[in-house]
Amino acid sequence: MAPRPGRNGSRRSKVSLSSSRCRVAILISGSGSNLQSFIDRAASGKLAVDIAIVFSNRVDAYGLTRAGNAGISTRCLEHSDYPNRESFDQALAQKLDQHQPDLLVLAGFMRILSPWIVDHYKGKILNIHPALLPAYPGLNTHQRVLDANEKWHGSTVHFVTDELDGGPRILQGRLRVDHRESAEDLAKRVQSVEHQIYPEAANWFAEGRLEFRNGEAMFDGKPLAEPIVKDFE
Ligand code: GRF
């Protein structure tokens, strides 16, 4: 399996020097528990990416405090200061590019990205969605899953394309629904799954095992027709 090219066109080796490690920008809008899972993995030496910047579109996002506590640089741009989606996204990209990210990790970033910025970072944006996509795109997934009496629920890491919650799926964490539990309890269980699968998928990207090619997610050089599924309690 060939490692993916680095920023300067060099091949990224699996055991890389720290200067050539994959640089990640993590985008948040709120609590940042997924961000925390990246921070905790980094602290235990099991994260193959460097968190170059944490970006928020809300000044009051608690994730900014988490990043600050971990000594990570933060930036904030409020979307209400911009006349439209694309002008905000252009300002965002200008700020992000100062940190030369190899990968954008959307972790509860509550903004729909414009086609312009999706193209600007083509194949380099990951998102995590709290459902087993393609089932339950959109909001309020946990209650909808309970209402529909589903047996399974979970979360999906996918590449971001112009289609909302519709980009190529990479990794799903799946758990059985207990119909005695509330939507809040189910959400907590799903989030604990997310905290395990999201850093793992980012590590695959950094190691060159995962890439976006011709509109598909490729894993170890082969297209992922279906996402990799891991079962959790
Ligand atoms: C996660 O549940 C994720 O699936 C969704 O937004 C939530 C963010 O939570 N995209 P947090 O801010 O990481 O705690």
Describe the protein:
This protein is α/β, with parallel strands linked by helices. Helix content is 30%, strand content 24%. It is built from six helices and eleven strands. The strands form two sheets. An eight-stranded mixed sheet has the order 3-2-1-4-5-6-7-11, covered by helices on one side. Strands 8-9-10 form a three-stranded antiparallel sheet. A hairpin with a 2-residue loop joins strand 8 and strand 9. Helix 1 crosses helix 6. The chain is globular, with a radius of gyration of 17 Å. The N terminus is likely disordered. The site of 5-O-phosphono-beta-D-ribofuranosylamine has 14 residues, from helix 1, strand 5 and helix 6.
- Please state the average pLDDT score: 93
Order of helices and strands: EHEHEHEHEHEEHEEEE
Count the DSSP helices: 6
In angstroms, what is the radius of gyration? 17 Å
Q: What is the SS-derived class? A: alpha/beta
Q: What is the helical fraction, as a range of percent?
A: 25-40%
User: Shape from CA axes?
Assistant: globular
Biggest sheet, strands in spatial order?
3-2-1-4-5-6-7-11
> How can the largest sheet be summarized?
8 strands, mixed
Would you identify the regions where 5 or more consecutive residues have pLDDT less than 50? 1-18
Proportion of beta-strand residues? 15-25%
Classify the oligomer.
single chain
Termini distance?
32 Å
Ligand types:
5-O-phosphono-beta-D-ribofuranosylamine
The counted number of beta strands is 11
